[in-house]
UniProtKB/TrEMBL annotation:
Record carries keyword Nucleotide-binding: yes
Name of the gene: cmk
Taxonomy, superkingdom: Bacteria
Organism for this UniProt entry: Lactobacillus intestinalis DSM 6629
GO molecular function per UniProt: kinase activity
Catalyzed reactions: dCMP + ATP = dCDP + ADP; CMP + ATP = CDP + ADP
Protein name, entry field: Cytidylate kinase
EC main group: transferase
Residues binding ATP: 7-15
Keywords in alphabetical order: ATP-binding, Cytoplasm, Kinase, Nucleotide-binding, Transferase
InterPro entries per record: Cytidylate_kin, Cytidylate_kinase_dom, P-loop_NTPase
EC number: 2.7.4.25
Domain (Cytidylate kinase) ranges: 3-218
Length: 224
């Protein structure tokens, strides 16, 4: 079974996807982390974030690996664990530009489909239900207010031990700007698949969102 969870930045996609994957013994793939890794690679090679050819060459040189360690997905590039680096404010501010490059998206989508293979998988991102796994049996589209997502992002940074001088208002503005970029890019823009179930997580706890999505997976499983 393939489960696709899409939605804007900090809507809670990765958090709930990880929990559900663990509960159901599904393979979890965080596609956003892959685009963030591309952005880290571009920065490490001192490349302009719009330099598609240069970034593609750097990705081929450094590589991107997703590894499961102690039940957590870790991201490696050039033999180094970059799981914390990919969450820093600088990378968050520039990942939309990198992920909008057609060549980058083509390369990552091919890798994502390869990773999905023929196993039970739950994958989250922005174009999973529309582009990466268009035939997914369950498609979820999470939404939440920009303010609540900014508060979550700030809390997440603190919990990861990543320092930021940004206020919640600045993060909210950044998130709103990223929403616009992601939904207006030419290739695979952020949008809800026609057959996706929309869930507003603004006033829901993580457990409540997990329960709602798990119910949808169970319903679909009974029909297969």
């Amino acid at each position: 079974m393939q489960v696709a969870i899409d939605g804007p930045a900090s809507a809670g996609k990765s958090t709930v996807a990880k929990i559900i994957a663990k509960n159901l013994s599904f393979v979890y793939i965080d596609t956003g982390a892959m685009y963030r890794a591309c952005t880290v690679i571009a920065r490490n090679h001192n490349l302009d974030y719009g330099n598609e050819e240069g970034i593609l060459k750097a990705i081929d040189q450094d590589g991107i690996e997703l590894k499961s360690e102690n039940g957590e997905q870790k991201v490696y590039s050039a033999g180094k664990n970059i799981s914390l680096e990919i969450r820093t404010p600088e990378i968050s501010a520039n990942v939309s530009q990198v992920s909008a490059l057609p060549g980058i998206r083509e390369k990552m989508v091919a890798l994502q489909r390869e990773l999905a293979g023929h196993t039970d998988v739950i994958m989250d991102g922005r174009d999973i239900g529309t582009t990466v796994l268009p035939d997914a049996e369950v498609k979820i589209f999470l939404v939440a207010s920009a303010r609540s997502r900014a508060e979550r992002r700030l809390l997440d940074l603190k919990e990861r031990g990543i320092h930021t001088d940004q206020t919640v208002e600045q993060i909210e503005a950044d998130i709103a700007a990223r929403d616009y970029k992601d939904s207006h890019r030419a290739v695979s823009p952020l949008r809800k698949a026609a057959d996706a179930i929309e869930i507003d997580t603004t006033n829901l706890s993580i457990d409540q969102v997990v329960e709602k999505i798990s119910e949808e997976i169970e319903k679909k499983s009974k029909k297969l």
